[in-house]
Amino acid sequence: MHSLTAVRTCVRIDGVRWDGQKLEAEPQQALPGLPGLVRSVRTPEFADVVFHEVRAKSVLNGVPGSSLPFSWTVNPYRGCSHACTYCLAGDTPILMGNGRTKPLAELREGDEIYGTELVGNYRRYKLTTVLAHWETRKTAYRLTLEDGTSVVASGDHRFLTDRGWKHVTGETAGVGRRPHLTTGNKLMGTGAFVEQPSVTDDYRRGYLRGMVDDETEFHIPLADIEAMERTQEYLDYFGVREGRGFLHQVRELAHWQIAPNPDWLKGFLAGAFDYLGTCSRSILRMSTRNATVLEAICLALKHFHFDFAIEELRRRRGVRVVRLRGGLRENLRFFHTVDPAITRKRDIDGVAIKSKQPLGVVSVEPLGEMTLYDISTGTADFIANGIVSHNCFARKTHSYLDLDTGKDFDNQLIVKVNAGEVLSRQLRSTRWKQEHVALGTNTDPYQRAEGRYALMPGIIEALTASRTPFSILTKGTLLARDLPLLTAAAEVVPVGIAVSLALMDRDLHKSLEPGTPTPAARLDLVRKVREAGLPCGVFVAPVLPELTDSAEQLDFLLEQIAAAGATGVTVLPLHLRPGAKEWFAAWLRREHPDLVETYRYLYGNRSYVDKRYRARLAARVVPLIEKHGLAPRGRSTDAVTGVPGDDDGVWPDGSLPVGVPAPRVDQEQLTLL
After folding, report:
1. What is the Cα–Cα distance from 259 to 175, expressed in whole angstroms?
2. Is the pLDDT of residue 220 over 70?
3. Do 70 and 657 touch, CB atoms closer than 8 A?
4. Least confident range of 14-23, 208-217, 438-447, 530-539
């Protein structure tokens, strides 16, 4: 048996190891509360990534539940250096959960804001929470829309158009090809938010006037505590106390102005809405019997160019209603212009996004490098200056990861620099039972950063020394670097290796999996693994109905996989979780509109494809697998085609399982974005 130590000295590390004394790296502010943090750095090679080097206390993670073919995982990285970064200028106003706005730079983890969700055929506003917040420096672009809306964002940022999500910049061909904004694309949302009012003395006086519907008496409102507290705050500000002369003082403050200025008018409308207004089903109304108040409301609305109608309530004689026209866009403009106190009346949760505004793209102009900010949310999006704005998709699909709040998945990368050392200590425990350990179930252990940190050699040594069987799933060709170590390990313990490969079509690969190793490169990795004498399975996933599922396409792909020497395959049809389904539907409408109805029929509101399709796929795939000598041993037909069945989790050559259950592979390791 080869000496693992000797083998490791022969392994060529791709790139130079990072050394604290030699690395010329730009310091980056550490993430607060991150246990074991050694330092946070940025380097030119990874310009958009901040590496937070930590000394972990544990790297061996138990997997809850008993339905998976493995019970333990090791993940040396939290996050992935392959992922994209989405970011905006710090002064971009974000729609908060209370209906107000706040600059992006001032947001904090835990803040409640609005995102969106797809419900049936409509996208609707949905309350969500800020999970992470960070800053970076990138080349920025100014996006200008035909209604005057302007947003400053990185080229990687994506906005929702009427034809799906699109990056700010991109290419129409080559490696940089991706859906991106062009002149005329129409964005979804309400358009630019207006600036919220300053609280001046005139604003306070106007608000108090709006809270009085009858000049003969004044009552501090009790029904809504926010209006009550604001009213009391303003009375205290002016030194008005209840008691003798109270009403006289209020009338002096809250008198009608002959020529009110804008601040007074904003305050008056805010008070009138808090006292007299409602907003239900996106219809904003203010009702009163007082003709003077009604006239004042109309004059104030006209001053700010609001369109409205006056209606008579049949059931309440003498009551007249001022109804704002223009839907959600004008409602938000009203709320932000005057800032009522009562937040429950500003609730838009569940309201459909019906973009009838002139939000066509006029220009995308480069601005040079600048500081930008981004957030992660529970809905994977947020509302930036009235436009539906995307944050990293992986934050939703990888929410099960052991990532601390505030650690961004794609550009805040947690590196467990002592992973090998800690794992070795954990595996020496007398309680360790040498159970199977799976690598690559959460994040790819052979992502780009591994070329610099080289954590996997130490992990492989620790597993081997403790006689722990293990498996690796990857699409990173960097695994070839460690083949000498893996070969030596396989002489001591069972080792399983699998490579994910979805298709052979180069154009489709660039469209669906940009930034990942090419199919040819992954096949070459399979060859190298097999030449090293190790078993290597292939996950053919995701199979796309009507795009990559023809007998000819599958036959050719399996032929290439067999020629590369793969020991078995698992074929998985496309799985569309919420979020992935939305993106894929937009891509399908843009690239293959003739297939939209087919996919709607096959998936409906489900994440998994129709069972009948899976059965047809199995009938097509099984003979091809047998034809190319890739038939499994000890596994059911269902397991080979991604259909739930009696999969015993054994690789085709009888080795231990790769450690990734079929229903989860495509959503964790096969990047569609």
Report:
1. 62
2. no
3. yes
4. 14-23
Residues β-bridged to residue 431: none
CA-closest candidate to residue 603, choices 613, 616, 588 = 613
Is the pLDDT at 202 greater than 90? The verdict is yes
What pLDDT is attached to residue 328? 94
In this structure, are residues 492 and 652 in contact, taking their beta carbons and an 8 Å threshold? no
d(CA 284, CA 328): 9
Name the residue among 271, 283, 285, 262 with its Cα closest to residue 213.
271
pLDDT tens by residue, 310-369:
998 777 778 999 999 999 999 999 999 999 999 999 999 999 997 677 899 999 999 999
- 422 in Cβ contact with 59 (< 8 Å): yes
pLDDT tens digits along 416-470:
999 999 999 999 999 999 999 999 876 788 887 888 889 999 999 999 999 999 9
Is pLDDT above 70 for 117?
yes
Residues in the chain: 673
Helix, strand or coil, per DSSP, at residue 611: helix
For residue 181, pLDDT beyond 60: yes
State yes or no: pLDDT of 184 exceeds 60.
Answer: yes
pLDDT at 591: 81
Say how many C-beta atoms besides its own lie within 10 A of residue 176's C-beta. 14
Identify residue 191 by its one-letter amino acid code. Answer: G
Q: Based on the number of CB atoms within 10 Å of its own CB, is 280 exposed (0-12), middle (13-18) or buried (19 or more)?
A: exposed
Give Rg (Cα) of the chain.
30
- The residues near 410 (Cβ < 8 Å, ≥ 6 apart) are 49, 79, 80, 81, 82, 83, 84, 85, 392, 394
Give the integer Cα–Cα distance in Å for 673 and 661.
21
Angstrom distances, CA of residue 193 to CA of 99, 101, 247, 422 = 11, 8, 38, 51
User: What tokens appear for 497 in the block?
Assistant: 């290796």
Edge-to-edge order in the sheet of strand 283-288: 277-280, 283-288, 320-324, 308-312
- What type of residue is 633? R
* Predicted confidence (pLDDT) at residue 652 exceeds the cutoff of 90: no
Confidence band, pLDDT 50/70/90 cuts, at residue 576: confident
Residues 6 or more apart in contact with residue 416 via CB below 8 angstroms? 54, 55, 56, 59, 76, 77, 78, 422, 455
What is the rounded distance in angstroms from the CA atom of residue 268 to the CA atom of residue 612?
Answer: 63
Residue showing tokens 């160019």: 305
Cis amide linkage into residue 593, ω under 30° from 0 = no
Judge contact between 652 and 72, C-beta under 8 A. no
Residues 137, 566: Cα–Cα separation, whole Å: 43
Residue 671 CA neighbour count, 13 Å, CB half:
25
Q: How many CA atoms lie within 13 A of 132 on its CB side?
A: 27
